[in-house]
């Protein structure tokens, strides 16, 4: 069986103390959306950070496009084509929208003006506000800046840690639409979501984590249809 | 304990060697200096080691201690009091009243432009009133016999009274500064205390009516029971005793005076150690360390962190004030020009950190070791530099090198501090 | 009533000196605020870094003077300044490598870093005293006055003269150029933007591939340059004495905090706020007021709010007021 495009395989580890992840596997195919859901403290964000190299794994491997990247630093993974949007503190608040995008492209040595145009096409509001400090924007707009910043390296896979935390339902729908749009351009999306139901609706693949281990893994639709998942994790 | 005992013995050997090879007089001089510094180091250790407060104004609190000696122990200048005493006290009272009124006004009045204007009006009127009462009185006082007094003089009480008073004076200053700067970021306290220390010295240098400023003040008294050398040299019993030990009267009397001082300083030191050890191991001390190690958790448990910090800041500063008073009464002169931040603030910090912050015995050991080093390098530095440069021909370069040897100790001290911080951050005697 | 003469007296004794002093403080505070923004600690060694840079510049100034290399009306020190900056940069980079880097890797608390900077301060202070001694050093040359009081009186026919010292003109012009260059660098260049990004959000900057070591190195070099320039300008305007430079720490910190620690714009504003307050509070206003009021009301006293010896008290008082009422400063710094 061919490996998925990006896979965190049987990951075990934590932040130095007790293990948080116990043999947890997360994967995403090219151009698809994978969503990690689960109760609070299930290790969702931790699993995502593990894939991105922000904590040391005791066991398990991470492979990107067949290449073992387990020992690479997060910065090196960015260079390999991974983009990461942290849950909080994910913009440079004192810098303008455009400067945020430029900083996103910091490792690029070629001309990235095209990519900026693409981001503005995706999020037209950002073009309007491009000379405003990002910290002065609304919550939803700030998330757009954060996603736009991560897109500047032209990643092959984009990882989002609870992108809709703290935004209104309307803004959330809008954001999900954009995420689908990004996936259609061939970029894989791996995201952690608190709003499980809406997220699974757009997911090609869903992972339900409980206590740092995989509980259910299936397509988004199948998980939504599974009565046990519905009862335990989607509130009926 | 055996390792700690060895460390103290090692330092004791340093002092013994100084006595044997240089002179006992010199060894005792350094010892007394180191012991007073040890008291200051204990005060700093209470603040830093127990509560993590970073105070860079040690010099100011020590100077207040010194000032208290002049204010308590010198005889009052009656003429000056009648000429301007009332005016000066009245002026100061007006100043305090205006400040108190300003604080009350700020708290009572609703926010807004009226409050701002009222505040400005109050401060302006208050300032003019203060200067109108204060200035002529100061002028009158400073005009009286300026070559020997020109100040109000003191209370004419025994010097020993000045020691606790020095502590009180320093405590009062610590209260004022702690009220404003505590509870803010830790480096702000450092900057604020650095500033207040400079201002205290500026006041002592310029307010001649207070303690003659840079004209300095000689103290005619010594703390009971310290004798004067000249008295000893006229005393038959002492002369015989000195002769039987093989000392000439001048050296012998000087040594005896230093020994008496040493016993007194040791008594104060022992008292401070005993009290702070008791405090450290009491519920209060445990709470303090809990606050230091996790302020947020302590606050969440309902501890009033800022109030506790204020308490410990005042206590530590008071200890420094007492030490400052002892130092000045030992010197026999109050000279504001001698208060240098490197010597009074940063040297004490090096002592605490080298010795081991959070440990009282560490602070004492650090003070003994660094105090010894500081003074021995001062006296041996030029000698050593002369020896090193003896092969050089006479000239400006050689003169410069010999002159600058005394600055070597700043460099040495800085390097020691950096090395200890890096390789042994807990110090020689770590916290238990 | 003689408004014109009063105005000239004000310019001559308050505005011009305040402007020059403010520019010097602003440059010093910029260095402190940059270090704070990037390395996240209050650098107590900054005053002594200024002293060191000035000392190196003075030594080369003397050498240039001895071989006859001067620049006409511009002080020779300005020729030696680049060398001073280079040597000081080398010193602070070495210090960073040998001292600060270790604590950065350890993620030490700001207080520990402050204590460490105190140790560095000792060492730098010792080096400066060892090499040049503790005494006053005068190294100003070039044009003494841009405008002399006598010429001004002759040209305008006013009773009051306006004197602008060469050192004051050099200070203001240099400071203006340096500040403009610094802001251009921070706003327009890739490295400058990466520094702002690092100061704003360190984790995200790392995630974006910004090299922290490079940011830190560039910051130290800029801080060393700013410190040396500030120190040399101050020394030209007044005189060089190592201890004075240590004491400048207080007004410089006050300026940086008043402006908002971490904010370059704030540091400049803060520098001028502190400088003008200091000059205005310690200036004897008798002369200005005498021109303004009828003769019968002329003041007897000096109309001096505070003796010059208390100038530190002014910066201190402003510092305390800001800490109490506006802890983040005029330009919302990082401090709270």
Automatic annotation (TrEMBL), chain A:
<keyword id="KW-0067">ATP-binding</keyword>
<dbReference type="GO" id="GO:0005524">
    <property type="term" value="F:ATP binding"/>
</dbReference>
<comment type="similarity">
    <text>Belongs to the ABC transporter superfamily.</text>
</comment>
<dbReference type="InterPro" id="IPR052156">
    <property type="entry name" value="BCAA_Transport_ATP-bd_LivF"/>
</dbReference>
<feature type="domain" description="ABC transporter">
    <location>
        <begin position="6"/>
        <end position="236"/>
    </location>
</feature>
<dbReference type="InterPro" id="IPR027417">
    <property type="entry name" value="P-loop_NTPase"/>
</dbReference>
<dbReference type="InterPro" id="IPR003593">
    <property type="entry name" value="AAA+_ATPase"/>
</dbReference>
<dbReference type="GO" id="GO:0015658">
    <property type="term" value="F:branched-chain amino acid transmembrane transporter activity"/>
</dbReference>
<dbReference type="InterPro" id="IPR003439">
    <property type="entry name" value="ABC_transporter-like_ATP-bd"/>
</dbReference>
<dbReference type="Pfam" id="PF00005">
    <property type="entry name" value="ABC_tran"/>
</dbReference>
<dbReference type="GO" id="GO:0015807">
    <property type="term" value="P:L-amino acid transport"/>
</dbReference>
<keyword id="KW-0547">Nucleotide-binding</keyword>
<keyword id="KW-0813">Transport</keyword>
<dbReference type="GO" id="GO:0016887">
    <property type="term" value="F:ATP hydrolysis activity"/>
</dbReference>
<protein>
    <submittedName>
        <fullName>ABC transporter ATP-binding protein</fullName>
    </submittedName>
</protein>
From TrEMBL, chain B:
<dbReference type="Pfam" id="PF02653">
    <property type="entry name" value="BPD_transp_2"/>
</dbReference>
<protein>
    <submittedName>
        <fullName>Branched-chain amino acid ABC transporter permease</fullName>
    </submittedName>
</protein>
<feature type="transmembrane region" description="Helical">
    <location>
        <begin position="154"/>
        <end position="176"/>
    </location>
</feature>
<feature type="transmembrane region" description="Helical">
    <location>
        <begin position="255"/>
        <end position="276"/>
    </location>
</feature>
<keyword id="KW-0812">Transmembrane</keyword>
<feature type="transmembrane region" description="Helical">
    <location>
        <begin position="369"/>
        <end position="388"/>
    </location>
</feature>
<dbReference type="GO" id="GO:0015658">
    <property type="term" value="F:branched-chain amino acid transmembrane transporter activity"/>
</dbReference>
<dbReference type="InterPro" id="IPR001851">
    <property type="entry name" value="ABC_transp_permease"/>
</dbReference>
<feature type="transmembrane region" description="Helical">
    <location>
        <begin position="7"/>
        <end position="24"/>
    </location>
</feature>
<feature type="transmembrane region" description="Helical">
    <location>
        <begin position="117"/>
        <end position="134"/>
    </location>
</feature>
<feature type="transmembrane region" description="Helical">
    <location>
        <begin position="30"/>
        <end position="46"/>
    </location>
</feature>
<dbReference type="GO" id="GO:0005886">
    <property type="term" value="C:plasma membrane"/>
</dbReference>
<feature type="transmembrane region" description="Helical">
    <location>
        <begin position="342"/>
        <end position="362"/>
    </location>
</feature>
<feature type="transmembrane region" description="Helical">
    <location>
        <begin position="408"/>
        <end position="424"/>
    </location>
</feature>
<feature type="transmembrane region" description="Helical">
    <location>
        <begin position="53"/>
        <end position="74"/>
    </location>
</feature>
TrEMBL record, chain C:
<keyword id="KW-0997">Cell inner membrane</keyword>
<dbReference type="GO" id="GO:0005886">
    <property type="term" value="C:plasma membrane"/>
</dbReference>
<keyword id="KW-1003">Cell membrane</keyword>
<dbReference type="GO" id="GO:0015190">
    <property type="term" value="F:L-leucine transmembrane transporter activity"/>
</dbReference>
<keyword id="KW-0812">Transmembrane</keyword>
<dbReference type="GO" id="GO:0015188">
    <property type="term" value="F:L-isoleucine transmembrane transporter activity"/>
</dbReference>
<feature type="transmembrane region" description="Helical">
    <location>
        <begin position="168"/>
        <end position="186"/>
    </location>
</feature>
<keyword id="KW-0813">Transport</keyword>
<keyword id="KW-1133">Transmembrane helix</keyword>
<dbReference type="GO" id="GO:0015808">
    <property type="term" value="P:L-alanine transport"/>
</dbReference>
<feature type="transmembrane region" description="Helical">
    <location>
        <begin position="80"/>
        <end position="100"/>
    </location>
</feature>
<dbReference type="GO" id="GO:1903806">
    <property type="term" value="P:L-isoleucine import across plasma membrane"/>
</dbReference>
<dbReference type="GO" id="GO:0042941">
    <property type="term" value="P:D-alanine transmembrane transport"/>
</dbReference>
<feature type="transmembrane region" description="Helical">
    <location>
        <begin position="248"/>
        <end position="276"/>
    </location>
</feature>
<comment type="similarity">
    <text>Belongs to the binding-protein-dependent transport system permease family. LivHM subfamily.</text>
</comment>
